[in-house]
Design a protein that fits this description.
single chain, 3-stranded antiparallel beta sheet, 2 domains, elongated, 11 strands, formyl-coa transferase, domain 3, Rossmann fold
């Protein structure tokens, strides 16, 4: 890992037994904060996410590469007695262990929390599961399942359409980030208590947390919150929505939003689009009246936006102090010089994929900079890590490999 200075979590050792996204997004966040994240993988294929693509058989998927930056990888067969012995020794030296296997799998391997806490009482033991304690606790979950049972689908789209799955994988990565927050808090608490603890984050619960503002609508109406499309989620102001811009492309829109409190944004908006004559118009002189006349508000704005590019609309309104955002696609984001300059978009060299561009880490810290590094190949760091952690030699590893332990 290329680092120019000490990092926030450089002394934190993480044993990463995660796969796919909900768990790996957690450990990637820790790695980007400087933690020493060791990915423990089955010698026969490793993290199943490595094979989540068919464009190049035998080559790690882009999906895997996006979720495992800045980690190191070792192979270890936890189903073998010797593999379990090795993992037990590693647990003694670790600060954090995290897994997101199917319910009951880690216990069947002999590494449930009650066992591990005896091996290392200071260890932070984290688990990501689909559901918390209750009737569904043994159910398997993925992102779209979590978004369904967490309320996100019921809130996305309009009442004229079926529920829609949001584009971002908030059920997966959102859960991983919640887990990372819990781990950081547990590490801080350990400084006072000297003890580790058990952290469990349910994907359903994480999505519910992301959906919390919808419960304000329920509190007001006494009924379940309904889908509102691009209009104000609380039904309290206009404009709030997408406005078509020049170009006619799939994403040639700008989202324009004025807050519900007062007329300041609205008056600025009218001046910016050359309609200062409407300032004080009784149809629009309060958030409630603008909401009641939102179709006319939309007509006025569309007259302005349709003759301008989305970037121009965003620039004009942004300069005027009006909240507005062009709808950028992934290619536009990737090619944005400002995002590249602040390392939100980075390019790494992968030994099998070549140059690969990916999003970086959004948390910028003045005293803890971690350069984004590529994801590891399967077992790439066996020699270094097993020597560093356990003093195993190259000959030891050859013998272990012959016995299918590593």
């Amino acid at each position: 890992m290329s680092q120019s200075q000490k990092t926030a979590l450089e002394d934190v050792k993480v044993l990463d037994l995660t796969q796919f996204e909900a768990g790996t997004s957690c450990t990637e966040a820790l790695a980007w904060l400087g933690a020493n994240v060791i990915k423990i993988e089955n010698p026969k294929g490793g993290d199943q996410g490595r094979g989540a693509s068919t464009d190049k058989p035998g080559v790690d998927s882009h999906y895997f590469m996006l979720l495992n930056a800045n980690k190191r990888s070792v192979t270890l067969n936890l189903s073998s007695p010797r593999g379990r012995e090795i993992f037990t020794e590693m647990l003694k030296k670790a600060d954090v262990m995290i897994e997101n296997f199917a319910p009951g799998a880690i216990e069947r391997l002999g590494f449930g929390y009650d066992v591990v806490r005896q091996i290392n009482p200071r260890l932070i033991y984290a688990q990501v599961k689909g559901f918390g304690d209750g009737p569904y606790e043994n159910f398997v979950s993925f992102d779209m399942i979590a978004q369904s049972v967490g309320g996100a689908l019921s809130l996305t789209g309009t009442t004229e359409t079926e529920p829609l799955k949001p584009g971002p994988t908030i059920g997966d990565t959102g859960t991983g980030l919640h887990c990372a927050i819990g781990i950081l808090a547990a590490l801080h608490q350990r400084e006072r208590t000297g003890r580790g603890q058990h952290i469990k984050v349910a994907m359903q619960d994480a999505v519910i947390n992301f959906s919390r503002i919808a419960f304000a609508r329920q509190a007001v109406s006494g009924k379940a919150a309904v889908r509102s499309g691009n209009r104000s989620a609380l039904g309290t102001t206009a404009p709030s929505g997408l406005y078509k811009c020049k170009g006619g492309g799939l994403n040639d829109y700008c989202f324009i939003y004025t807050t519900r409190a007062g007329n300041r944004h609205w008056d600025r908006l009218l001046k910016a689009i050359g309609r200062a004559d409407l300032i004080g118009d009784e149809r629009f002189n309060s958030p409630e009246r603008r909401w009641a006349n939102h179709d006319e508000v939309d007509r006025i704005l569309n007259e302005f936006t349709q003759s301008r590019s989305k970037a121009e609309v965003m620039q004009v309104l942004g300069d005027a102090g009006v909240p507005a955002g062009a709808v950028y696609d992934t290619m536009e984001i990737t090619q944005d010089p400002a995002l590249q300059k602040r390392e939100m978009i980075v390019t790494v060299d992968h030994p099998k994929r070549g140059k690969f561009t990916l999003p970086g880490w959004p948390v910028k810290m003045s005293d803890s900079h971690v350069a984004v590094d590529r994801s590891p190949l399967l077992g790439e760091h066996n020699t270094a890590i097993y020597a560093e952690w356990l003093g195993l030699t190259a000959k030891d590893l050859e013998e272990l490999k012959a016995k299918e332990v590593v």
